């Protein structure tokens, strides 16, 4: 077929891919004088009405998508009875080729590619289109390093052929979901599972299951537990491992309900990893700068918006100079003076706390407030939480003024406490002490009362004094009578 001119317009120049249904060529559009990709259906199946309709459905379905991480469909046509799809040409390699070339990908890069693929699936699912064959072979990496998903639309007519017929596999079994392998209904959650397997392969360097046949691999997805990614790659964070586990849960009730949920958690993981490392490289940098909403709050401004950060640094330098003059004359605020102002976490240094440094505080009750879960507030895993008891009648109904959780340090003059919660709307303040007092009266209040949002930065005023303990004291509860703390970060 090399050199063939389809419909007098597209000259096939080089074969760049092949599958059970079609062959993909690099081609030249002589009318518009540009390079494109041509997906040409095999002649031996082009006369099958079912397969022809599947091919047309794929073209129509993907043509509805307009997304930066989906390969664009340009046109559809037929030449001498052979249908073809015209696609944008991606100059680069597939994600599978990159994994084979490099082995395990850097953690940040793997998470970034998973986010980009997940965003593409979000767009497809919004159009009621399920990919059904998410795998690294169907993820193209362009010259700028961006991931683009291709080869949408495994035909419904293929479902009746099962898993063993040559060229008629419903999804590649290395990445097939349990329900897909069993011939059950395939939904958006099936794509989520496959993306979880792709993420595992990017992190580990190979798919989780191997067997002598495709059917045997498929049955492993149904019957065998997922290998622990933390064992295969110990430098993976527990937060990222939790995303892999959640995405690849065999039971639908335990799996992410949507690609959007998975992408949200991956964005948090990427931001946390970037904040810990202090830098990012490759596609992780590009994805980090696209974060919005609450996930963006996890990453320092200097990594998300380098130019804006530079301006912020200059402004901060001026503020620090003014503050230095003020603090030289007095270390405590007088009545009516304004409270300190919280700043972007990128301008401060997060305090690294060992597990066991967080403690519950319930001096007006039974001295017990979810003590077994306090480490969840500092484990850098937003899927785990420390929570209060449920006070249906509020603190007044329990004869308390509040409860809290405190962080034990070696003695620091902290400037800020960042709090992330899944139950915003409660009121809290930060107190400090060298030793742990028996009552709130023994603590020194170092912040104003704050109505806590989902991501809250609470500025602290210690007068440059170093304290060994910092208490988040919750004095008013949100609707539901219970507070969940996802993460607490002390900054100096």
Structural description of this entry:
β3 (22-29) and β4 (34-41) form a beta hairpin. The radius of gyration is 28 Å and the shape is elongated. The strands form four sheets. The protein has a six-stranded antiparallel sheet, with helices on one face. Strands 10, 12, 14, 15, 16 and 18 form a six-stranded antiparallel sheet that branches. The N and C termini lie far apart (66 Å). It has helices spanning 49-63, 95-102, 107-126, 178-181, 188-204, 214-223, 229-232, 238-247, 259-277, 282-288, 293-296, 301-304, 306-329, 394-397; strands at residues 5-6, 10-18, 22-29, 34-41, 73-79, 82-88, 93-94, 139-141, 147-149, 358-361, 386-387, 403-412, 416-421, 427-433, 444-445, 450-451, 455-459, 467-476, 484-491. By secondary structure, it is of the alpha+beta class. Mean pLDDT is 82; it is low at 154-171, 298-314 and 326-338. It has three domains: 5-88, Phosphorylase Kinase, domain 1; 93-293, Transferase(Phosphotransferase), domain 1 (Orthogonal Bundle), CATH 1.10.510.10; 330-491, Sandwich (Jelly Rolls), CATH 2.60.120. It has 14 helices and 19 strands.
